[in-house]
Amino acid sequence: MIDYEALFKISYGLYIVSSGTKEQGNGYISNTVFQVSSDPPRFATCCSKDNHSLALIKDSGHFSVSVLHADTGIDLIGTFGYRSGKEADKFDGMDISYGHTGVPVVRNHAIAFLEIRVDETIDVGTHLMFIGELLHAELLDDQGDPLTYLHYRKAKKGMAPKNAPTYIDSAKLVKKSHAPEFARYKCPTCSYIYDEEKEGVKFEELPDDWECPICGEKKAEFIKL
Amino acid sequence: MIDYEALFKISYGLYIVSSGTKEQGNGYISNTVFQVSSDPPRFATCCSKDNHSLALIKDSGHFSVSVLHADTGIDLIGTFGYRSGKEADKFDGMDISYGHTGVPVVRNHAIAFLEIRVDETIDVGTHLMFIGELLHAELLDDQGDPLTYLHYRKAKKGMAPKNAPTYIDSAKLVKKSHAPEFARYKCPTCSYIYDEEKEGVKFEELPDDWECPICGEKKAEFIKL
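Above: the input entities. Below: the structure tokens describing the complete assembly.
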């Protein structure tokens, strides 16, 4: 038996993983970035097979990781996590630099960044895992605390996007007993859940121009669960 | 150029990974446990090639993950993180249950646990990475916050043990400018650093029976850096 609530106790950071070139680059929000070997330091990350960045990482053989500051706004996470690089240039208007390997690095709200050369690619199911040696690591803000997935879920009330390895279909979550007068509404675009009990405001009482705090979807599009 | 301080901005939890059988079981502290694929949910963890548990995971084909509570004392981390199962039975006196697959699960200070069947083993350098399907997940403490590696480093002043993928030889850390009157002392057993500047107490002023807060090593064995 899998209680999906238990999976929320696993800790993750929140990063922008970028790849490609000056001509064609893209980045996406990832919570799976981790060191897998100590000497030389090697890192791994997972990328959804549906992700626009997948081909960019495969073709360039490199990716960068921007470690986001705990104060990062949901607008940046919305841009990189809930929109596809197939439809829009996510780097447009962003503070981008290019690393030693030519890989793009998103600097907005970054407290550190890494550059990794992919040595191995593993098919892990819904995702590919890229493993490789750390070529460069730079600290941009020594005092800044990193954004964690827990902080994002608690403070920003965000859920994982569909392409995240940690994505959980909300139907799989064990239903906790809610007082019958409270309801939950789901954003059809990013799966964000508006929970009346947590928010203390009935969904119907929100203004008509209220938008999904994650992806900007209109209130009228929300689905009552 | 690698600034190793930048790597401290990557977020991890802190877990006890256990394997083996009722007759012969062992567990170790791990900060690398992460979901790598969403449906079915698959997890990965890394295990040092020097680790006693390596053969147990290989032989049994299963491992469990105990998610530790943020309040977990350093004694438990000392037992599982800085002692080897080759020399002592770490499960002695612990609250151990056996999962659906027969794998041991450490219950002490656990807020949740997972059982994983290993499907794939990857050599990533100093470590092996085990990847497999999540068979069981149970929440033990809904309200408990998980212990994070950052919390452990900050509040408990701990560093990664030698067998961790995130282990960093302290000589590689960029030296920050310290006032000359402050010194740092290193535990020869677990690499814990006593930093006079952070502690506000000179090492020499500590009582003679002071012990390493991580592994219990004697004060007299510490090495001045």
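Note for the figure: Helices of chain A lie at 4-7, 53-60, 74-81, 149-155, 196-199.
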